[in-house]
């Protein structure tokens, strides 16, 4: 397994050095790494070698010490989770865990699901919906993968108690109706999920969280899509680094794709299928590199890609490199260009904006069958 990871890292790094942008089969570099393998179901942990961007390779989520766990029961007890339920595997079961699903299922969480460190939630091979209840919380954890889920209808739960990593039971309070929320967490990869119609944000990266990659997701029919940075007063988010790559935004989205406070975002090779307010926004002087994206404005009245809050921010470093704009869309650049400065485990070649429709055509949760390429 180490040789596979080394090969993936070397090829990606060489591609960046030589400016390669080719996308064989119309797939992006993450999907090229695993989707063509007919034996993906027997080698699920290969996925952990395919991540790029600030999350880097998810090496701690693979290897002989990882416990395979299968969800067989869609029920949920937030205080005393039963073996076979998602909460038991994601919160209670000790050690490094790779979670899969026995069959397609609809899971309604009574309280937020607190995911522990070194956990991979892998929905491939089943149609898994986490819907019409609470969402997923990553609270001060690291090395977490969330892949292949449909998440919709997430909302603030009623007051109640919930088990957290380590086994303590506490009051569930102060949590909004986010689908996925990161609080003080690092090295997180959110990939190939379909997220929509929730109460607050679909993905929020907050309170000092950093080294996060959000890739290959489909965000649709929602107002406040993605928040990077807790609030204007939380200076710890200055160290936040997030890669937003190969996602599809829209239809039916309004704003925050993403909205960034304080930190740095590399927004690359995403497809923006319209917006009502703005696409990329920010406050408190964040740095943004927008690269190789396709921005298609909804109407002549909704053409501005960027929004600074407040309107000041002329010295912020917001740059557009190789983006394409349709239906009058435009990006207001300011400041100087700031590179992501990826290391060799994070680096990947940005494709041209002309390839974005192809690279994002399979964004969202995939339907994969064991024994055939996904």
How would you sum up this structure, described in words?
The chain is mainly beta and 374 residues long. Helices cover 9% and strands 31% of the residues. It has 4 helices and 31 strands. A 10-stranded parallel beta sheet has the order 1-2-5-8-13-16-20-24-27-30, with helices on one face. A hairpin with a 5-residue loop joins β10 (161-163) and β11 (169-171). The chain is globular.
- The coarse silhouette is globular
Counting DSSP E segments of at least 2 residues, the number of strands comes to: 31
- Given as residue ranges, the uncertain stretches (5+ residues, pLDDT < 50) are 10-22
Could you give a short account of the major beta sheet?
A: 10 strands, parallel
Mean pLDDT: 92
Protein topology:
Blueprint: H1 2-17, H2 29-34, E1 67-71, H3 86-92, E2 97-101, E3 105-107, E4 113-114, E5 119-122, E6 128-131, E7 136-139, E8 142-147, E9 150-152, E10 161-163, E11 169-171, E12 180-183, E13 186-191, E14 194-196, E15 203-206, E16 210-215, E17 218-220, E18 222-224, E19 226-228, E20 241-245, E21 248-249, E22 253-255, E23 259-261, E24 264-268, E25 271-273, E26 280-283, E27 287-291, E28 294-296, E29 306-308, E30 318-321, E31 324-326, H4 356-359
Parallel strand pairs: 1-2, 2-5, 3-6, 4-7, 5-8, 6-9, 7-12, 8-13, 9-14, 12-15, 13-16, 14-17, 15-19, 16-20, 17-21, 18-22, 19-23, 20-24, 21-25, 23-26, 24-27, 25-28, 26-29, 27-30, 28-31
Antiparallel strand pairs: 10-11
């Amino acid at each position: 397994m180490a040789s596979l990871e080394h090969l993936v890292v070397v090829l990606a790094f060489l591609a960046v050095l030589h400016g390669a942008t080719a996308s064989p089969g119309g797939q992006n570099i993450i999907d090229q790494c695993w989707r063509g393998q007919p034996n993906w179901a027997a080698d699920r942990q290969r996925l952990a070698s395919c991540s790029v961007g600030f999350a880097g390779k998810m090496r701690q989520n693979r290897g002989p010490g990882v416990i395979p766990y299968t969800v067989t029961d869609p029920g949920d007890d937030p205080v005393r989770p039963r073996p076979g339920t998602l909460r038991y595997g994601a919160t209670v079961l000790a050690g490094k865990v790779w979670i899969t699903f026995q069959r397609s299922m609809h899971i309604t969480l009574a309280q937020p699901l607190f995911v522990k460190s070194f956990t991979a939630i892998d929905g491939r091979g089943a149609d898994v919906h986490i819907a019409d209840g609470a969402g997923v919380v990553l609270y001060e954890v690291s090395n977490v993968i969330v892949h292949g889920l449909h998440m919709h209808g997430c909302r603030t739960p009623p007051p109640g108690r919930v088990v957290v990593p380590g086994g303590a039971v506490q009051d569930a309070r102060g949590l909004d109706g986010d689908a996925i929320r990161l609080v003080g967490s690092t090295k997180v990869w959110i990939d190939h999920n379909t997220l929509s119609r929730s109460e607050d944000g679909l993905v929020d990266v907050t309170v000092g969280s950093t080294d996060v990659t959000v890739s290959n997701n489909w965000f649709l029919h929602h107002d406040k899509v993605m928040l990077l940075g807790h609030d204007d007063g939380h200076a710890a988010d200055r160290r936040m680094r997030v890669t937003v790559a190969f996602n599809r935004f829209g239809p039916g989205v309004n704003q925050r794709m993403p909205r960034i406070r304080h930190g740095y975002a590399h927004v690359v090779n995403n497809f923006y299928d319209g917006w009502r307010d703005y696409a990329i926004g920010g406050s408190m002087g964040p740095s943004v590199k927008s690269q190789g994206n396709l921005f298609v404005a909804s109407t002549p009245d909704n053409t501005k890609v960027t929004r600074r809050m407040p309107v000041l921010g002329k010295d912020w470093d917001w740059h557009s490199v190789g983006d394409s704009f349709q239906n009058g869309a435009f990006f207001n650049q300011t400041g100087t260009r700031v590179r992501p400065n990826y290391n060799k485990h994070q680096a990947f070649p940005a494709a041209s904006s002309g390839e974005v429709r192809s690279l994002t055509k399979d964004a969202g949760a995939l339907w994969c069958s064991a024994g055939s390429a996904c």
